[in-house]
Amino acid sequence: MSLPGTLFPLTARANEQNHLELGGCDVVQLAEQFGTPLYVFDHTTIREQATRAIHAFRSRWNNVVVLYATKAYFAPFLARLFQELGVGLDVTSEGEIVIATHAGFAPEKIYLHGNNKTPEEIRAALRAGIQHVVVDSQGEISHLQSLISTLHSPITNLQCLIRLSPNIDAHTHRYMTTGVADSKFGLGIANGIAENAAREILRQKNLKLVGLHFHIGSQVFDTDALRQALNAVLDVAADWRAKFHFDFQELNIGGGWGVAYNEMQTTLDVDAFAENTTRVLREGLRARGLNENLKLLVEPGRGLIARAAVALYRVGSVKEIPQLRTYLAVDGGMGDNVRPALYGAQYTAFLANCIGDEPTREYAIAGRYCEQGDVLIERAQLPETRAGDLLAIPVAGAYQLPMASNYNLIPRPAVVLVQDGSAQLVRRRETIQDMLACDLN
Ligand code: LLP
């Protein structure tokens, strides 16, 4: 059986032992050495996907920055790698800021997001030297101004982008649709809230309104919705220029690039997306007489990282229910991947220790957590599988580890980074002591 090209990392192959190999490392050995569940990230895939995204946009737009949306998954090794590749960051919390700055990430390339930024986060961002904020609520503007005033040497022009709610449906999962009118994100256009915010920013002496932002959702394949959102936002820029001389320097079109989790789905073609987006943008700017040299920002999370990782699980109990189905229970589940339970996400499993064997039957892959809904895959096609076998679930790089929990007081998995035949433990497995560290008596 050949490995599906769009799901696994670029370096994936079946080796001579019929084991899955990633980054030149046999995953059966990795599982023995580091234990399971184990998340294996492939250095080559991260590098390649980031480089491809940068090239797709830079070859079509002069002034463009690819920001990585760190909520998809963040760790010091990623901060260093993205810095090296020339990618900026979209961060949403003090934790993400601290990881970035400890890793030596240049603050000029960090954008602070969040629909409810706390004063501590704003202070942390200002202390770190972050110069760009995506404003996502009207109340945040006076907070920004007053927190800047308390600094020893106040910043004179904190660059602000306003996150707009363009009222466009991205046609994705309800929980990942963020551009409609009834969303907790973004400032409304039609109701005048965004315009009020813009006017308020212009009145603040330490804030500078440099641009607009929108992000209509995640797992977006409807590029028509993106085009409509883009045009709606350009209309706002033109309207504000006429009303109060808005100087449009930066446009952030968000992330949300759709990624395939199984062979029935497709992955957004970044080159085609960049081509269409920059064409629509250029035409839209020209038609409205707006600044054609503006800085374009894109902020994919999943699109850069999802495919770069594979989750490895050991099969424990096998429960055959005659005439119904057979459950393979693994040593992970909703504690490290809540996406099937939360969004009905449909993954595919592979037998990592017999990776070339053809599937012969159907199983349900159950997690180990005390929740009936903790089923990672309802219908997995696999070769005959037994207790002790190793399962690989690809497309595990985004929104799994960062959304992991300690439900049932089970420690979260270890993470290894593989490259050219060597594996580096980049996050050790959590221990019970780690979990107890915050309990005081
Ligand atoms: N920009 C903004 C403002 C965002 O809120 C997000 C994601 C992104 C960029 C990156 O989106 P991406 O390219 O990764 O789709 N937990 C969900 C996804 C939530 C996305 C949150 N915001 C999941 O597991 O699918």
Percent helix = 25-40%
Q: What is the strand tally?
A: 21
Radius of gyration: 23 Å
Q: CATH homologous superfamily of the largest domain?
A: Alanine racemase
Mean pLDDT: 95
Give me the number of helical elements.
Answer: 12
The third-level CATH topology of the largest domain is TIM Barrel
Percent strand equals 15-25%
**What's the N-to-C terminus distance?**
54 Å
Poorly predicted spans: none
User: What overall geometry do the principal axes of the alpha carbons give?
Assistant: globular
The small-molecule ligands in this entry are: ligand LLP
CATH architecture verdict of the largest domain: Alpha-Beta Barrel
Q: Describe the biggest sheet?
A: 9 strands, mixed
Task: State the main characteristics.
441 residues; Lyase, Ornithine Decarboxylase, Chain A, domain 1; 9-stranded mixed beta sheet; 8-stranded parallel beta barrel; binds ligand LLP
Describe this structure in a few short sentences:
The protein has 441 residues and is α/β, with parallel strands linked by helices.
